[in-house]
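ok trying again, last paste got cut off:
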Amino acid sequence: MMKQLPILFALSCMSLIPTTLSSQVDESQTGAWYMYFWNTTFGESNFGLQGDIQYRNWDLGGDLEQLLLRGGLTYQPNNSSIKFTLGYGNITTGEFGDGTATVAESRIYQEALLPQKVGSRFYLTHRFRFEQRWVEGQDTRTRWRYAIFLNVPFNKSTLEKGAVYLALYNELFINGGRNIGDGRMVEVFDRNRTYGALGYSLADNFRTQLGYMQQTTDNISKGQLQLSLHHSF
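nice, full thing came through this time. structure:
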């Protein structure tokens, strides 16, 4: 019995570790993400702010996947379309299913946003982002992200008020290191997101989108409905 005590103690400790990242996820269950993106500039200056609030569910609502709060300071050089951001994010991740365990994360990120117009109505945006991540129970991590966005209005040549448009994007995530502490390893490939939606411009500076995103990690591939608002002021 005495020889079994260390084993029982280890198993008891393991039971206290949040299971958010290791819970059995039902890949066939569609999730739902509800999101608000905003940005503004300080008058006629080169500086501004941007951020987003995202409430992500493993299901259509009620089973928390993530609550993400993010904001940053932006800078756009004179006579340039590129925009740089230095920002911070706070993320709470919940486990799949009936459990209520959560994992907290703080994140600093640097971003470059490069928009371009192709032809008369193809609006492309490239986003390059580098993150430094402090995830509860893990060593400091880094991650590289590249996203390409495409908006194509149907009934107008711009995304002005009244425009109905197609919205597409693909984003690739690459881990900056594999060791996350205590002998645990992650893959270099973190995840990929592919998205398609219909959008409508409620005003020149306010749009909404309803779409579907497929997220693939090294472990699972799961679909998410997405409802988002995009606001410039």
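cool. The first strand starts at residue 31 and ends at 41. The CA atoms of residues 9 and 15 lie 10 Å apart.
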